[in-house]
Specification:
single chain; 349 residues; alpha+beta; T-fold; eight-stranded antiparallel sheet; three-stranded antiparallel sheet; 8 helices; 19 strands
């Protein structure tokens, strides 16, 4: 069974005490005009927020050169937005989507890297993660905006257009080619995780020992707080009227990513339609999980595994993570009970 993910604005993971971000915007492009350090100093760090990747991003750096490093971080975000956005005219993804089948599109090496990672997750997940699903995700985004599910015939007509196996790339010529003109890429499922990892690589190379990167709820930390204590990350209570916290995690030099059926949804005739779709039917997948939170070293891994686990359900997801070295998980089932892998107990407060 292949499944795909409508791009989401994650509102489920927040830094407690150190950082709280509002993640409910729907802008396109990257806008960091007027952004600057909210606080300055070795203990308080340098913090800046701005809109990019259709969401709010916030980065805090505990380093004397924090202000200059924030400039570099936001320049990187703008550059990646100009490469990987499906809505920014002229971006690499935009040009791939506009191209005819069989016509190679010249792209940047970064875009090739992202395509390669996406295809690897497509293969390893058995098709559960498929970035070539823009027509279906766009259809369900419009349905969510209108509050009415799409006609079954319309959904069925778009399913043949999906399938990342119709996509190929060539590192030597830096080109990407679609076999089918109707194939369209939507990087929303993995894009923020990919960029967060690149930001951490840059900051670590610059000698930063303590920082928090939040890209629309993808939380990635460098080291610990300046006093050596862990960062604290909250997991939101699903469907709560407020930002109630279901659990709190103690994190050092790790990523926390949560995927939930309540992130983007609407109800119609008493039925809930969430954002994770089965491409065999084109409709939301059935699962006994309300949310899946992944603790890992890589934010990209967290992006992928949080969605895969949500799709698989509690039993299979627990088995998967217990057999994945260096990764732990916290799950909330449809009865609002908390479940977690054995190693996750170390992080839970």
């Amino acid at each position: 069974m292949k499944l795909i993910i409508i791009p989401r604005i994650r509102i489920v993971t927040v830094i407690i005490l150190a950082l709280t971000a509002s993640l409910s915007c729907s802008l396109t492009g990257c806008d960091t005009k007027g952004a600057g350090p909210v606080s300055a100093g070795r203990d308080s760090g340098y913090t800046r927020s701005g809109f990019c990747f259709d969401t709010l991003i916030t980065i805090t750096i505990y380093d004397p050169a924090g202000e200059e490093l924030l400039d570099e971080c936001f320049d990187m975000c703008s550059r990646y937005e100009g490469l990987l956005s499906m809505t920014v005219s002229g971006s690499d993804i935009y040009r791939i989507n506009e191209a005819d089948g069989g016509i190679p599109v010249t792209v940047s090496e970064d875009t090739i890297d992202f395509i390669e990672c996406s295809l690897r997750y497509y293969r390893e997940s058995g098709g559960k993660l498929d970035i070539s699903v823009a027509p279906l995700t766009q259809l369900w985004t419009k349905a969510r905006d209108s509050g009415t599910p799409p006609a079954g015939s319309t959904v069925a007509s778009l399913i043949p257009s999906t399938g990342a196996y119709k996509l190929s790339y060539d590192r030597n010529t830096l080109t990407v080619t679609k076999k089918d003109s109707t194939l369209m890429l939507d990087p929303g499922a993995l894009g923020k995780g990919y960029v967060a990892d690149r930001l951490k690589e840059m900051l670590t190379a610059r000698g930063v020992k303590s920082a928090i990167i939040s890209l629309g709820g993808n939380i990635l930390t460098i080291g610990s707080r300046p006093d050596g204590s862990p960062f604290r990350v909250g997991i939101r209570q699903p469907f709560a009227d407020t930002a109630a916290v279901a659990a709190s995690l103690k994190i050092k030099d790790s990523s926390v990513v949560t995927s939930g059926t309540y992130e983007r949804y609407f109800t119609y005739d008493g039925e809930l339609y969430h954002h994770i779709l089965d491409t065999e039917t084109g409709y939301p997948v059935k699962t006994d999980l309300l949310s899946a939170t992944i603790i890992s070293r890589s934010s990209l891994d967290g992006d992928a595994l949080s969605t895969i686990c949500l799709i698989m359900g509690l039993k299979d997801a627990t088995e998967l993570i217990e057999n994945t070295p260096g990764v732990e998980a916290v799950f909330i089932t449809e009865d609002n009970k908390l479940h977690y892998t054995e190693g996750a107990a170390y992080y839970l407060e």
